[in-house]
Amino acid sequence: MSSAVPDTAVPGDAPALPERVVLQLRERILSGVLRPGTFLRPDRLAVELGVSPTPVREALQALRADDMVRALPRRGFVVAPLDRGDVVDLFAVQAHLTGELAARAAVALDAGGLAVLRGLAAEVDALIAAPPDFERSSSAPLRLPGDDLALAEAEHRFHAALNRAGGARKLAWLVGRAAHYLPPRFYTDREAWRTATVDAHRRLLAALAAGDADTARAAMGSHVLDGRDLLVAHLEAVGFWDET
To answer: Of the CATH numbers 3.40.50.1360, 1.10.10.10, 1.10.760.10, 3.10.20.740, which one belongs to the domain with range 17-79?
Structure first.
């Protein structure tokens, strides 16, 4: 599935500091590290993230606009509610929109456009196949944070190019907005996601090469919903929706 990096970002450009803080906090919220109802103290978060309080406050305001945190009078910011139905709905929207764009791309793509997508998919495959920089342990992720980010960004580039190939700017913009609610780096150290992603890209590229809009739509939708199933299973496993 695509990452939350905006499609307007220039490849190679580093996000501004508040945007990087937004990405980190969004990832923690959507992966269940920060639960609904958790108070977010800018000064404490600034120390934890190694930044000044100002970009943290800016990030919290941005997350408030996305209804991921709420501001309570005289009490500060708190993580907004997120129930199982919300998660399922968000992925359903993403699956529908990206499926439609993939179907349109199957009709619109020329040989050059298909070659670009194959090259971008090969970048994702290479990062997935690369050996980790250190051995996995019970407390360590499979890859270093930089490797996680590289894979998330490569996956984003593939899907952003595919979305643009559909020739529907507003639909592609909506996909970018919907992706703000999906955790791009949650998946990168999960073997099930990596295996499914390689397979999904191959099925997508085959459908695009054949000009098969229906198969492209189904393959894209299935790819997104695989991510939904992984995230929901994780949130259930960590007791995200357990009653207190």
So the answer is: 1.10.10.10
